[in-house]
Write a structure and sequence with these properties.
about 130 residues; mainly alpha; Rna Polymerase Sigma Factor, Chain: A; elongated
Length: about 130
């Protein structure tokens, strides 16, 4: 069940870790993604990655921090994959040129005879 390189995990130790870290970890995931089904999936994936990676010797606090880091990375990965998967679909009519050409006339301030005039008023005007 466990990868030999990751190191075997005693079932009782894992159960204690899971019981202590899962409620706050699940609450964090649920708070961020706001979907219970997604939070459940991410929690499961967090523990799978924890078990499959080579783990250095850590105390309970460091292990909990590492679990939260794994979960945060999974959230970021999920966000990136959702952004990459989003491709807006435009109706084909939106891509065709319109029958009326766009106006090519310059804005009113561009035809001003005053070199110091701008669209925002003259340099001496008070706002």
């Amino acid at each position: 069940m466990f990868d030999a390189q990751a190191g075997a995990v005693d079932e009782a130790d894992f159960r204690a870790l899971y019981d202590a870290a899962s409620p706050p970890l699940h609450a964090y995931l649920l708070h961020v993604c706001r979907r219970p089904d997604v939070a459940d999936d991410l929690l499961q994936e967090t523990y799978c990655r924890y078990l499959m990676r080579r783990r250095p010797v850590m105390d309970a606090s460091q292990t909990r921090s590492w679990l939260f880091r794994i979960a945060t990375n999974l959230l970021h990965d999920r966000g990136r994959s959702r952004i990459d998967a989003f491709v807006p679909e435009f109706p084909s009519e939106a891509l065709r040129p319109t029958s009326k050409p766009a106006s090519t006339s310059a804005p009113p301030c561009a035809s001003s005879n005053h070199a110091s005039a701008s669209c925002y008023g003259s340099p001496t005007s008070k706002v």
